Amino acid sequence: MKKSTLATLVAVFLYLSLFPSCLAPSNSPTPLGDDFLTQNANTLPPKETLFPSFQKDETLVPTPTLPTYWDVSDVDISKLDPTKKHIAFTFDDAPNRTLEQLVSVFTAYNERNPDCIANATVFFNGVGIHTRSIPSMQIAYAVGFEMGNHTFSHFNLCNLAKEKLQNEIDETDRLLESIDGKKRHLLRAPYGNVNALVRECAHTPILNWSIDTLDWTNNSVEEICERVLSGLESGGIVLMHDGPQNTVHAVKRLLPTLKRLGYQVTSVSQLSKLHTCPLRIGGVYTRARKNRQ
After folding, report:
1. Which residues pair with 240 in a beta bridge?
2. What pLDDT is stored for residue 291 in this prediction?
3. Is the four-CA dihedral 264, 267, 273, 275 of positive or negative sign?
4. What's the rounded Cα separation, in Å, for the pair 293 and 291?
5. How many Å separate Cα 130 from the centre of its chain?
6. How many other CB atoms are found less than 10 A from the CB of residue 226?
7. Spatial distance between the Cα atoms of 185 and 122, rounded to a whole number of angstroms
8. Alpha helices of the chain — where are they, by DSSP H?
9. How far is it, in rounded angstroms, from Cα 75 to Cα 146?
10. Domains of the chain, residue spans
């Protein structure tokens, strides 16, 4: 073979051996197949090093944890006597025509009985909250009444789709916030009707009752009082309504009677805190018995 031909073949061979390195930059890593990753799992650097797109984004904001129990840390129980028995009074369908009268009854009683101050929880319907009713609500809150949510329209919540149900609760909470500054309020479902969806949509405990006065049926003062006294128990929750005139007269009679029997009347949250009986968010309660542990 001539020397010139041999030189040419050598030159071609060297060119072909160098060609692949000219096609890809020297800093481009060779792709790692699945077999390679599996066989070398113990010796490979962390996945974040091999694949930078897997690195954690430290700027992500963690999802807030929802509370498990109703917060009563700011509830004032300094005027409650722990040696007494306690029962909560609740009034539905507010604001109505007797709200200011109920406030007057409690205020007059408390002035005469500073050793046994009485309080209550009032459950409001959002549809009734407007410029004419807000002054009465402000007075009720100022004297210490706890404000509760009785939904906006007083529909049977078990018959509502989720979006409508949630709006019934949330819209009333927003209206009540303008009075007491609180984002959420204890929920009293209309008619006491509760199902799994209601519990899911409620961001607070749901309060039913252990004593129903049936005052909305036009019960007499005596009948209302009898229903309360016959069902007495410490930790009980009494259902009454803002509206019936006989309810106002019955409360005026019940407050001193209950004091003589060793009871002090409270709001629901006061009852929960005093009895160290925590109320679970979404739980349904008819009473708050004292925790003796």
Report:
1. 91
2. 77
3. positive
4. 6
5. 24
6. 14
7. 11
8. 3-23, 34-39, 47-50, 99-112, 134-142, 162-180, 196-201, 221-230, 245-260, 268-274
9. 10
10. 85-285
Per-chain mean pLDDT for the chain: 86
pLDDT in tens, 203-238: 999 999 999 999 999 999 999 999 999 999 999 999
Q: In this structure, what token pair is assigned to residue 98?
A: 């007797």
* Euclidean distance between the first and the last CA atom of the chain, given in angstroms as a whole number: 107
pLDDT in tens, 240-255: 999 999 999 999 999 9
CA–CA separation, 86 and 73 (whole Å): 19
Instruction: Give the distance, in angstroms, between the CA of residue 114 and the centroid of all CA atoms in the same chain.
Output: 33
Identity of residue 124: F
Token pair 């259902």: residue: 239
Which amino acid is residue 267, in one-letter code? S
CA–CA distance, 114 with 56 (Å, rounded to integer):
61
Distance CA 262, CA 248 (A): 22
CATH number for domain 85-285, candidates 3.40.50.2300, 3.20.20.370, 3.30.43.10, 3.40.50.2000: 3.20.20.370
